[in-house]
Amino acid sequence: xxxxxxxxxxxxxxxxxxxxxxxxxxxxxxxxxxxxxxxxxxxxxxxxxxxxxxxxxxxxxxxxxxxxxxxxxxxxxxxxxxxxxxxxxxxxxxxxxxxxxxxxxx
Length: 106
Description:
The protein is mainly α. It is 89% helix and 0% strand.
């Protein structure tokens, strides 16, 4: 065994000694890159969920405003919120359509 190493040039011994740590570092770097890519994919999914939640929140807000306007309209016997109620319904419908489009792409 000793005679085999004595015949190998010093350069080849040096390169062989560097091969193992270099391979280890390459594997570690590959694992880190793989992990970071998985994190990026998870963040993209989270971003989409946040966007959907934002639109749902906007729709809920508009529905609540419409509910309040409808209650005041009915409570006044149709004398108040005559103009505002149809406008509020259009705003609610706009948010509902926006959510429908977003969920279709989601």
